Amino acid sequence: MAPRRMRGEDAGTASRILDVAEQLVQVRGFNGFSYADIAAELHITKAALHYHFASKADLGEALISRYASRFASALAGIDASGATSRARLAAYADLYVQVLRDRRMCLCGMLAAEYQTLPQPMRDAVVSFFDRNESWLEVVLGQGREDGSLRFAGSVRDTARMVVSGLEGAMLIARPYGDIARFEAAAANLLLGLEPAADEALASPGPAA
Amino acid sequence: MAPRRMRGEDAGTASRILDVAEQLVQVRGFNGFSYADIAAELHITKAALHYHFASKADLGEALISRYASRFASALAGIDASGATSRARLAAYADLYVQVLRDRRMCLCGMLAAEYQTLPQPMRDAVVSFFDRNESWLEVVLGQGREDGSLRFAGSVRDTARMVVSGLEGAMLIARPYGDIARFEAAAANLLLGLEPAADEALASPGPAA
DNA sequence: GTCTATACAGCGATAGAC
DNA sequence: GTCTATCGCTGTATAGAC
After folding, report:
1. In the prediction, which pLDDT does A199 show?
2. Which residues of A touch B117 (CB under 8 A)?
3. B189 found inside a domain
4. Domain containing A78 — which CATH number?
5. Domain coverage including residue B195
6. Does residue B56 sit within a domain?
7. Mean pLDDT for back-to-back runs of 10 residues, chain B (209 residues)
8. Do the chains contact at A176 and B126, CB–CB below 8 Å?
9. Rounded to an integer, what distance in angstroms lies between the CA atom of residue A104 and that of residue A23?
10. Higher confidence at residue A156 or residue B201?
11. What is the C-alpha separation between B148 and B204, in angstroms, rounded?
């Protein structure tokens, strides 16, 4: 049975296992760490890990599930901010920056690379994560095009896919260089392509200083 | 000593090892395959593999080296075609499509994900690969902006980085969906953002039908 | 250049005591 | 819920025969 904890108390062992495993996957990949790595970090034994997560596949599923929940909360937070569509896009890109600051790849971006080696439940969860990102972006992009704060030639769906791809790819490439600025430049340039040309934006809150 | 072969003969064992290993890395990742996998595919023993590539790190270096050479040849081929800047960009994106058709990730894109687990020589080679891609794109983008066939707001360097990132990311995401069309849509949309608006391109070879 | 055989560390996972 | 101990397997790598 899971440990009973009241809100506000310290995280239980299962939660701490997830914290360490999450970091390991985001930095080294799912095939790049072992139970021994987690055990060493937490000063417990591998057997104790198996009590909380019977198999590595189970651990992987729990990892994606928690990550997706957090991401959904972050998106809800952006929505609740009442910001403009363009500002929401920028806030979305900033979520990636925060991950990159710990020298991590997006969890699901990392798992996407290793996709062919993953057990089916993890595969499904990874795809579901990207689907939800795409859906959220479709709403933002649709509204932005509607209110004139965004402008793009392709369909809303394709543009949403381009944004997810572009940001995930920018993370992927920025990490070997250890250079967040590289991500920020690629991301800014990507979003720049979705803004109206300078002479079109006079009627709406524009990018000009 | 390396086997002596004349041009036109069948590839030697070392070359066939590289072929199989390359496919395995691009599909499963460097940490997702073993010497046993290659040995089984080629019907030789693991010991024979170690004769040609003493360590897995050596194999990895040879892999990137050959891949980078091929890529350089492909870029030289595009340059030799005499195509317009915009057509060169499209041809560049098509290189990615060809890789994706075998259900593979870009070799160096895959290794970028696993970067933190790689030996230093492999790390250096991966970074060098991206540097060369970026340099090539800078020339194409610079010329395109010059002759009016391309238009983008950011710097040539940042835009080159955005293109590499965008295409690598589009590959990364398209693979879990097993859908090349998803890559093509994201790539087309990305390049669309680099084309002059329809009413600006009348003086130069435009995208209109 | 490929083989058999093997060394040795690491892996995920389980049994059973406490 | 965590431990010790261990299992069976796979990993990279090597020695030495052919």
Report:
1. 62
2. 28-29, 32
3. yes
4. 1.10.357.10
5. 65-202
6. no
7. 51 96 98 98 98 98 98 98 95 98 98 98 98 98 95 95 98 98 96 81 46
8. yes
9. 7
10. A156
11. 7
- The Cα diameter of chain A in Å comes to 64
pTM of the prediction?
0.94
Q: Is residue A195, in this structure, part of any structural domain at all? A: yes
Structural domains in chain B (count)? 1
> Which residues in chain A (86-105) have CB-CB distances under 8 A to chain B?
105
Residue A8, pLDDT above cutoff 50? no
Shortest-distance nucleotide from A44 CA to C1' = D2
Could you identify the residue written with the tokens 């070997």? A176
Q: Residue A176 — very low, low, confident or very high, per pLDDT cuts 50/70/90?
A: very high
- Tokens 């980078």 label which residue? B68
Decide if pLDDT at A1 tops 70: no
Any idea what DSSP says for residue A196?
Answer: P
CA nearest to B154 within chain A: A189
- CB–CB contact A112 B31 (8 Å): no
A113 and B115 within 8 Å at the Cβ level: the answer is no
Q: Which nucleotides of D are covered by protein (CB under 7 A)?
A: 1-6, 10-16
Residue B207 lies in a domain: no
What contacts 24+ positions apart, CB below 8 Å, involve A78-84?
A: A84/A144, A84/A147, A84/A149, A84/A205
CA distance B118 to chain A (A): 9
pLDDT value for B4: 52
Give alpha helix (H) positions in chain B.
Answer: 13-28, 35-42, 46-52, 56-80, 85-101, 107-113, 120-147, 156-177, 180-192
The residue of chain A nearest to residue B134, with distances taken between CA atoms, is A173
- pLDDT reported for residue B207: 47
- Asked if B109 and A172 come within 8 Å (Cβ–Cβ), the reply is yes
Q: What is the pLDDT of residue B26?
A: 98
Q: Is B165 on the interface with A (CB under 8 A)?
A: yes
